[in-house]
Write a structure and sequence with these properties.
This protein is α+β, with helices and mostly antiparallel strands and 1254 residues long. It is 30% helix and 15% strand. One of its GO terms (cellular component) is nucleus.
């Protein structure tokens, strides 16, 4: 399991942090060297490219090029331009406080950056709150306009996807067609590409031109650039004291903590052993005090607008954003040097932690060789045409650099083919799959170039409906990573092997032609290289492992075999005394004991020594001796640690001939199975376990940062720094013997007056003295400053002495690492006065782990006395435990052991556990959400996807319940979509009732719309009326279909055949016979309109109604709405829904007198009695008023039953029945509210009002 140990916590940086004081008072802090962009124009691009090569790529130190803010377009690189042109673009902002993403638009994020920043300035200690919202808009696509603008100013060799650094019309140039017109133009000369990613076809390239927009408190954890590439980062905009709209803002900048490439191993071990994090995981932002205590040099820079930072390969660094706004553009470049680092170091490290390989390094090597081969062929053809062209091509430094890069790439290509070569004399049937650069390993997620292994047995285990074979790279399979099948893999290749070998022979012949014949360094043919290769290739290792590993049928798992045999012992009386379990003979034959862990493992999981008969499990070899499985497997004559006299087991430590091996580095362990394919297993090694039990905790002086492992790596880094960065045989300058110290093309650092970093004082030029001018006293002082003895040759890098007139070469101008002040005091270069902080030294804050400690995590005794004391204490506890009858429990606690007991639990009990757990989680969820929402300043402006059904609405803190009503739908023979022919089967009844479920919302939504909290209630009511039958009718994937008819479904746009249907309807009605008169019609209801009760707190109308012209009293409007609604309900019931059986005797007499034609002087008042069935169960015709042919109007309302605030109420209305036709126009106590929208149907069919309508 991963190590359970204290880890360094995240500690935010204060907004008023004084960076200058920090650098001046910290011994190992130094400002990053910087030059001005104007110096590049003055000294030439060629010298600048040489500076980048020696200082950044080979030297491994960061560099800043400032002054770009005056050259960039001031109108384009602004938040206003970004908001106007890309404000509606949806992106995912990274919430750093809770490690999730927030979907929003770019414009919405830009509008809230001020509020996100102000939360850290409201109180002095607000920045310490780690749960405050930190939303970082990172890794978003760069606008194309920004890309074009940057391309105009950034040097072409450093820009994104640069395909050639040659000059137009240079040596080897050929004519090329115009991109946007007819004709041809002069192309660029033969030269290497600035970014080898451009060699890939366009569809295979990785797009890494990204934008980063952040506010105060956002950060990027400590990390290294992917695949050892070169990082470029330029800040295009930063907030100032006032924004574009005149609002005050906090000045924006970014603080970078950077290291050298040569210190990368020291940084990695410091991160693991002291901070408790892995630099490869990229999940920890180191504290400032952690950088202060680091045993390596830390380069610091405050990046402001116009600063262009160049990041060396494999150099760890982290960034902290300050102020209201910082806007940066970043991209990565791949060169020959970075490809070598990637193949040898970056990719193996990334494979171990399963980090994505997005740059397709092996494919870049292959396609770059194709490209360079074509360029060299073209140059050779032109050289053969004339002597002048031959002289120009042979003297061109760029052409010769392409040749040298071609040789270095060919060496990498040779290693790729050797690793994929099968054993000599064997043939494997390989399935062919055309290369498209999209095949990745199912475990490590690395890109696969050619050959790999594929399992077709478990391809349908994911239950996705499609067959997905398990593809694993050869390196992971050799490490023991695979699917649960473990064996019976099929070989797959993406290139024909003959094609790759033919390319190898062709490019090898080109190298021979370049050299003028066979040389000592000329590569051999692939067959000869394979014969002289002393180790087994990765493909051969996989071939052998496929034969050794057993196959497991995951579809039909076999029951556990009876590995134990019971031996029954009886006493003298023949009774069973005890039963002893023994392993079967077959099990003992197939398993072997490990020399280290003493556990028996299957023999195919063991490494056997060729000198002795000892067996070693791969887990012990990895954690105790730093030996990967493929390292052991590829060595045909492997000797075990015991035979090499470095065994570290307890028994071998007593042997004086053995010198126990101590691991070189710390392994915390990572559970990579969470990242890999769900079908993945680790058959040989559990890489999630740490090696802490094998490490010694001895430190120099007790400080963890001065442990022996860190000190050893620091000394190795210092020795590597002694080698002066220079151009070796891999670069064209050495061939011509170019003099580098002639003073021409000198690159100086920015002047003191123009420096942003104040610690770059002492002049803009670096002083350098040749080694012949160094005396012994100076070397002794430097030895004391560096902490190690000077080498015999006396060569040290960049001593800072007074100069005697000798200037540094153009490409070697960088600040010295260590040096002397005028008084002889040792100091770091770039720091004027370092004042240590006595007394108040801050410590690194750690977070202790609360997980249970295991036996391997227990600290080992420091010495023999401590071990004796610990043993005595344990024996005392065991003696007391024997007396108390708890010996087994105490012994298991001391040893860190546990016994797993399987108990059978009935399903009902398990169901109860699940229900209780769900209730507990539900009870805790609202509080957690409330705590998290307190500090949420920015929320998404993107509407969440629609879900069927409306969520209950909270009204005054209470939840309004929605009811589902089942309504019977009767068969309508006149208006049916079925065929009218009778297709009934004899004896089968067709009169089955049909029902429809309608979700009806609470009465609160109708009558008290203004009291509903949060949002438009009209839309909620609209969603509440959706039919559940429609939800059941939908198929999966139909979420985007409409839920109901649109509001304008009668318009021409929604119904293009409206006029045609209307014409057909008129013709049909003209041919229909006239219906007999049915007497007087029921009172005609007015069309529905928006309720006047839907007003907000300002008296303005809401929803679908038109807002009133004058401001009214909301309370009066609400009362009027209630009165109108009650009048409407009462009028409808009185007009056509009250039946004959509901009328009282006096009312029947009045009806009869009305039929006799009696004239009444005053209208009779009839009370309408509410019926049980409600609106849905009453017909709209046939009521008493309909039979009498009289008009009905409301003259008063008296509310009965529960009032507002309940789910329902029953109004009682006083109804006036009159034969006066003018009564329709007379007004009553309030304007009569319209009735509900009624769905009209044919005669004789019941009609239902629209539930919830107004």
């Amino acid at each position: 399991m991963p190590a359970n140990r204290p880890r360094a916590s995240f500690e935010p940086i204060a907004p008023d942090f004084d960076l200058r004081e920090l650098v001046e008072t910290t011994e190992n802090f130094q400002y990053v060297d910087r030059i001005s962009c104007e110096t590049i124009e003055e000294q030439g691009l060629e010298n600048f490219e040489k500076l980048i090569l020696l200082h950044v790529i080979i030297g491994g130190k960061p560099l800043v090029v400032d002054g770009w803010e005056d050259r960039l377009d001031p109108w384009t690189f602004t938040p206003k331009w970004l908001r106007d042109n890309h404000g509606d673009k949806v992106e995912n902002a990274r919430n750093l406080h809770n490690k999730d993403s927030l979907t929003l638009t770019v414009g919405h994020y830009l509008n809230y950056m001020g509020k996100l920043t102000d939360q850290y300035w409201e109180k002095p200690d607000n920045y310490k709150d780690k749960q405050r919202q930190r939303s970082y808009l990172k890794d978003i696509d760069c606008p194309p306009v920004w890309q074009e603008k940057l391309k105009e100013h950034i040097p072409a060799s450093l820009f994104y996807w640069n395909d050639s650094t040659g000059e137009v019309g240079g040596p080897g140039a050929i004519d090329e067609p115009l991109p946007n017109g007819a004709g041809r133009r002069k192309g660029k000369g033969v030269a290497s590409a600035g970014d080898l990613m451009s060699s890939l076809p366009m569809e295979m390239r990785a797009e890494n031109l990204m934008c980063y927009i952040g506010h105060e408190g956002t950060y990027t954890p400590a990390h290294r650039e992917m695949c050892a590439s070169l990082g470029q980062n330029i800040m295009v905009n930063a907030s100032e004291s006032f924004g574009e709209n005149g609002q005050p803002e906090k000045p924006g900048s970014s603080i970078w903590f950077m290291t050298e490439s040569k210190d990368r191993h020291t940084v990695a071990e410091y991160w693991l052993s002291v901070l408790g994090h892995d630099i490869e995981i990229e999940d920890h932002f180191a504290q400032v005090v952690a950088w202060q205590k680091a045993p390596f040099k830390v380069y610091v820079v405050e990046q402001k607008a116009g600063d262009f930072i160049l990041i060396p390969p494999l150099a760890p660094h982290q960034v902290w954003n300050r102020g209201t706004r910082t806007m940066k553009v970043a991209w990565n470049r791949t060169t020959v040097e970075t490809l070598e680092l990637a193949m040898n170091e970056a990719l193996p490290n990334a494979r171990l932690v399963c980090r994505d390989e997005q740059y397709k390094n092996k494919a870049i090597i292959y396609y770059t060789l194709l490209k360079y081969s074509g360029l060299l062929k073209t140059a050779r053809m032109q050289a053969n045409r004339s002597e002048w062209e031959a002289r120009a091509i042979h003297s061109s430094k760029k052409v010769r650099q392409v040749q040298k890069d071609f040789k270095r790439l060919f060496k990498l290509y040779k290693n790729i083919l050797l690793s994929e070569s099968f054993a000599l004399g064997t043939k494997e049937t390989c399935e062919f799959l055309a290369f498209d650069s999209n095949v990745t390993c199912a475990y490590c997620r690395g890109n696969i170039f050619n050959r790999f292994l594929s399992c077709k047995t478990c391809m349908d285990m994911l239950n996705t409906g499609t067959d997905e074979p398990y593809d694993v790279c050869m390196d992971c399979f050799a490490m023991g990573r695979s699917c649960a099948c473990q064996s019976k893999y099929k070989w797959v290749e993406q290139f024909k092997w003959k094609e790759l070998v033919a390319r190898y022979d062709e490019w090898r012949q080109q190298i021979i032609d370049m050299d003028g014949g066979l040389m000592a360094t000329t590569p051999q043919s692939l067959e000869e290289e394979r014969e002289i290769y002393t180790k087994k290739t990765t493909a051969v290792v996989c071939q052998e492992q496929l034969k050794l590993r057993p196959w497991v049928d995951v579809k039909q798992p076999k029951p556990e075999s009876e590995e134990d045999e019971e031996e029954i012992q009886v006493d003298d009386n023949g009774q069973v005394k005890k039963t002893i379990k023994k392993k079967s003979k077959s099990w003992l034959e197939n398993n072997k004991s490990c020399h280290v862990c003493l556990k028996k493992h299957p023999k195919w999981m063991m490494a056997n020594c060729t000198m002795c008969e000892r067996g070693w499990c791969y887990g012990s070899l990895w954690r105790a001796h730093d030996l990967m499985p493929q390292t052991v497997m590829e060595d045909p004559n492997w000797e075990c640690p015991h035979c090499r006299r470095v065994c570290s087991t307890g028994a071998c430590r007593k042997d004086k001939r053995q010198k126990p091996y101590e691991p070189k580095g710390t392994l915390l362990g990572h559970d990579t199975k969470k990242v890999a394919d769900v079908r993945s297993v680790e058959a040989l090694i559990d890489f999630g376990r740490s090696n802490l039990s094998w490490l010694k905790d001895a430190t120099n002086g007790g400080a963890p940062e001065s442990s022996a492992r860190i000190e050893k790596k620091r000394l190795e880094a210092e020795m590597a720094k002694l080698h002066e960065p220079s151009l070796d045989e891999h670069y064209a300058d050495e061939d011509e013997g170019i003099v580098l110290d002639d003073g021409r093309g000198e690159i100086e650092y920015s002047p003191v007056d123009d420096m942003i970093d104040p610690a770059l004082g002492g002049g803009g030029q670096s002083m350098w003295r040749p080694e012949s001018q160094l005396d012994d006293s100076m070397l002794n002082v430097m030895s004391g400053a560096n902490g190690f003895d000077a080498p015999e040759n006396g060569v040290y890098p960049e001593p800072d002495y007074p100069n005697d007139g000798h200037m540094a070469p153009a490409a070697m101008m960088y600040q010295p690492a260590d040096g002397l002040m005028m008084d002889g005091t040792p100091t770091f270069a770039g720091s004027s006065r370092k004042r240590p902080r006595p007394g108040d030294e801050e410590q690194i804050k750690l977070v202790s782990s609360k997980k249970r400690k295991t036996e391997e995590d227990r600290p080992l005794p420091k010495n023999k006395a401590s071990k004796q004391y610990q043993t005595a204490q344990e024996n005392k506890r065991l003696e007391e435990a024997k007396k108390a009858g708890r010996f087994i429990q105490v012994l298991a606690s001391i040893r860190g052991r546990k016994k797993i007991v399987k108990l059978k639990v009935i399903k009902e009990k398990l169901a109860d556990f699940a229900i209780k757990e769900a209730r507990r989680a539900k009870a805790q969820q609202p509080g957690a959400q409330a705590d998290a929402s307190q500090n949420m300043v920015l929320q998404s402006d993107i509407a969440p996807p629609k879900t069927f059904g409306a969520a209950p609405v909270k009204i005054n803190g209470k939840k309004a319940s929605n009811k589902v009503v089942r309504i019977r739908v009767e068969e309508d023979k006149d208006f049916t979509t079925r065929e009218r022919s009778d297709r009934r089967k004899p004896g089968v009844s067709q009169n089955k009732p049909r029902f429809e479920e309608i979700e009806v919302e609470s009465d609160f939504d109708e009558d008290f719309e203004g009291d509903i909290v949060g949002g438009e209630t009209s839309q909620q009511r609209k969603e509440a009326r959706r039919s559940s039958w429609l939800a059941r009718k939908r198929a999966p994937g139909d979420e985007d279909l409409p839920d109901e008819l649109p509001a304008d479904f009668r318009d021409g746009d929604a119904n293009p055949r409206r006029e045609e249907l209307r014409a057909k309807g008129k013709e049909r009605r003209a041919t229909m016979p006239a219906r007999p008169p049915l007497g007087l019609k029921a009172p005609k209801l007015k069309p529905a309109r928006a309720s006047t009760g839907g007003v907000n707190e300002n008296g303005e109308a809401r929803g679908r109604g038109r807002p009133p012209k004058t401001k009214v009293d909301p309370v009066a409007m609400a009362k009027a709405a209630m009165l109108e609604d009650e009048n409407r309900r009462a009028k409808i019931e009185a007009a056509g829904i009250i039946g004959d059986d509901s009328v009282s005797g006096s009312e029947s007499d009045s009806f009869k007198s009305a039929e006799d034609g009696a004239q009444e002087k005053e209208p009779e008042k009839v009370k309408a009695v509410p019926t049980k069935g409600g609106l849905a169960d009453r017909a709209t015709k046939g009521g008493p008023a309909d039979r009498l042919g009289k008009k009905v109007k409301i003259v008063g309302v008296k509310k009965s039953g529960p009032g507002p605030g309940k789910s329902s109420y029953k109004p009682a209305a006083a109804v006036v029945i009159s034969t006066d036709a003018s009564s329709d126009d007379e007004s009553t106590e309030g304007e009569i509210a319209p009735g509900p929208n009624v769905r009209k149907g044919p005669p004789g069919r019941r009609t239902l009002p629209t539930v919830g309508a107004k």
